[in-house]
Structure formats: structure tokens, C-alpha cells
Amino acid sequence: MTDTWDRTADGVDLEQAPPKTIVLTVQHPAHVHFFRHVHERLVDAGHDVSVFARRVPIITALLDRYDIPHETLVTPREHRGGQAVMQARYEWRLLQRARELDPDVIAAIGGVAAAHVASVVGARSVVFTDTEHATLSNRLAFPFADTICTPSCYRDDIGSKQFEYDGYHELSYLHPSRFTADPSVLARLDLAPDDGYVVLRSVDWAAAHDAGEGGFDDVADVVERLEATGVEVLVSAEGALPRALAEHRVDIAPHRMHDLLYYADCVIGEGATMAIESAVLGTPAVYVNSLETGVTDELAEEYGLLFCCHGPDRQLEAIDRAVEILEREDDVDWERRRVELLTEKEDTLSVVLDRLGVTA
């Protein structure tokens, strides 16, 4: 795939913004990516930025990789029954630290803790969300949040607090003005530049909004069907895999995953984030999940970079779609579709900085 995008500065001038004290909280690997460049720009402009997180290996590994100083507040419990207690402990410790820091702004994706703590310490809270079906966290966060930022394709009307922007979370870190794929990832996995491969993503369904939902019926069957087309299948799995699929698990540092997605022939999986990431990188994605979102629907309907399989026969539909993509790869100009998307969408980094109130 050739990156034809014209790389220009993102146009956000922070030099004239008075210094602020800003707190960012991250509770998922994607949140680290989302705030990575935000943190860099804020620090470079002289703002006092504190980052707080849960002690999750992949989260702390990414924060360390990107040289983001941070403080971990809790270590997640192994069992789901401890989530409420863990959330309460996280909020309590965040509150203690926020009282010491006296921040102007607290920002987060999802933003339950951010909204609650900000309302107590007198800070302004800025919450970013693109997940309509995260109903529990939305109910807990929205009443306390000052600003709720959503993509314009977000389906729900949140009211006067809602700020809509014409972009996606993933463009905060995968916009071509900041992201350039590194082909050395292929050699790291013993892949030649001409080798065909598919990335398959399976999730553990542990999130509260995933309860009662589903994706693949049989991952092994998906791998077998796709391998029959002559491609290699690399599996990125949150949970355990059947022993027969162990050799397919991709062994790669977390910060290299976007390079892998960029060079893939296709991505098929249960996770919305990875499907969206692939689409904005110009790699066709097949999203296999009973849950629907405004972002995935728009990427499917407006740009043809993502294909949604939601119904009871979603696995069979997904396999057929992935096989069709692989067989027609030379007939579709995926890069043209990506350029169309990038031309029409806002650079989300600029949106985030503006909502934090740090632009000139």
C-alpha cells in the first residue's frame, strides 16, 4: 500500500494559550494512543500535564514506550465481580491527587472518573465517547460532564453538553500527518513484502457493554477458511486461544500493531477499535459483532472501508466477505477510499486540543 497523503502541519497553535494544569486519565490501550500526541503538544507548549492509569501491562507498556510520565492508581482484579470496587478505588485516589494538583481540566475517554472528580474539585471535565452501547458508563458520566465530544455520526442526542466533530477517535493518532507505517514489522514476523496475510482479532467480552453480545462462533473455522485462500492468518487475541491456534497468535510489541494493520490484506475481527483503525489506514476491515455503532456504520456506508456482520449468521457472512476482499484485492483502490475519508474528516488532534481550551 502506498501512502499518497500530503503531510502538513496540523495547524494547532498552542504558543499563545496560557499555561493550564491538565489531568488525563487512561483506562484502555486505545486511550494511550488517543492522548499520546495530545500529551506531547501540551507539554511542548508549557502546560502542566498529569496522566493517571490503571496498572494494566499493555497500558503501562505503551505509556513507557511513548515516554509519557504517569501514575498508576489501581491494579485491576482478576474477576469481574471486583469492577465496582476497583472503579470506586480509582475515583477516590484520582480525587486525592486532583485535590493536590488543582487542575483546570480533566479529560478522558468514557470519562466516568474524570467527570465525577472534576465536579468535586471545580475543574472542567471533557469526555470523549464514540460508543453508544456503553450505556452504563454513559449514564454514570454524562450527568456530571461539562463537555461530551462525539463524532458527528454518533447516533444519540446527548443534549446541550454534546459537541459533535466530523472525525474519529482513531484520527488522533493515525492521521497521516503523524503516522507513517514501518515495513520492518514484516521482517520481524518473517513475512516477505509480497506475502499475503490477514489479521484476525478476537476479544474477551469482559467489558460491561459486551454482556450478552457475541462475535465469532468458531475462530478455528475462520482461520481454516481464510488459510484456504493462500494467506497467512495472524491472530491477535485478548483471551486464551484453542491449542490448535496457538501458533497463529501474533507475537508483536503493542506499539507495532498499527504497522501490521497497515500492510495487511484484510482485517477481520470482533473489536470495533481495531476495525476502525484498519479502515482509516486504508486496510479493508470486516467487523464481526452483534453490536452496532455509528462510526462503523459510517465507515461501511460512506467510505466502503469496513464491512459489518451483525446478524445470527455473522461468521459465515464475514468469511464470505473476507474471501471476496482477498480475491478482488487488485480490483479495489482502497487507498483512494482512504484519501477520500481523510479529505472529508477533521484531524481529531486539533479537535481535542481545542476542546481542552488550549488553542489560541
Describe this structure in words.
This protein is of the alpha/beta class and 360 residues long. It has helices at 29-44, 57-65, 83-101, 112-121, 135-141, 171-174, 184-188, 219-227, 257-263, 272-280, 294-301, 314-327, 334-344, 348-355, and strands at residues 21-26, 48-54, 71-74, 105-109, 124-128, 147-151, 162-165, 197-202, 232-237, 266-269, 285-288, 306-309. Strand 10 (266-269), helix 10 (272-280) and strand 11 (285-288) form a beta-alpha-beta unit. Helix 1 packs parallel to helix 2, helix 3 (83-101) packs parallel to helix 4 (112-121) and helix 4 runs parallel beside helix 5. Residues 205-212 have low confidence and may be disordered.
Compact overview of the structure:
The protein is an alpha/beta fold. It folds into two domains: 21-167 and 346-355, Rossmann fold (3-Layer(aba) Sandwich), CATH 3.40.50; 184-344, Rossmann fold.
